[in-house]
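Q: Convert this sequence to structure tokens.
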Amino acid sequence: MKHFTLLLSCLLILSAYSSAQNPVPNSGFENWTMMEPNNWLTNNATNVYYTITKDPASAMGMWAAKGEVLAGPTAAIMPVMSSTDDQGNGFAVPSFYTAMSFYYKFVKGGTAEFSASVAFFDGANAVGAGTVTYDVPQSTWTHATIPINDFGQGFLASECIINFLLNDPAPSPIVGDFFMVDEVELTGANSVGEIASTGLEKLFPNPADDQITAYYAVKESGDVEIIVSDMNGKVCLNELIEKESAGRHKIELSTSEMAAGQYTITISSKSGTGSLLMHVYR
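A:
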């Protein structure tokens, strides 16, 4: 009994650690409300049809998500599932990730294709993405990994959207074709160890009018000071951020009271100092 209790405790600790490292909400599709997977948007029509349902034949845990082609009044209804709210907003991420993995099954009788995609955003701007399409059926649980391409500004990532869907180039998709998905995970996070020193990484927009966003990296946790000065060295703005955590961050700075011209933004902490030029237009 003691050995069983110890094993159970270890499994719970590992599960909690994995959940803490993986930012995908409801990644194992264990949580459902009113026949909908929590934190995922589907094309289900409540009390009419459900292309996305929970299935007990999971890869791990109690449930997996199943997307099935259904017969519609005029055409087949293809299953679609996305990790967004009903406004199209993705989930927050602490950093950019280099890969997405998941388990899947794919059963078809015709020309259907199963697609999975992932994209990272900084506001409305895509900063990285990856996609894969399968046309070969897999009747048993299969592990897949999608490399995520960094568009050059992956360090700015603050939001992620994941999509799973079936599509079919044929005019009449086969009703009953389906995919199943379980244990979705983002891996390869940009670590704090990759940050060489505290410094500014980007200013946007630049030139700025009333407001500018400064993206910065902090090597070690501690107080961070951000100073905006004009070309004569006069301090126009001074922000002190106490006990900032190590990692990548952003801050919005008001430039509405600054005259048109060129300025220097400097960030300082115990682990380093860095500066970038800022332009204000009127």
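Confidence is low (pLDDT under 50) at residues 1-20.
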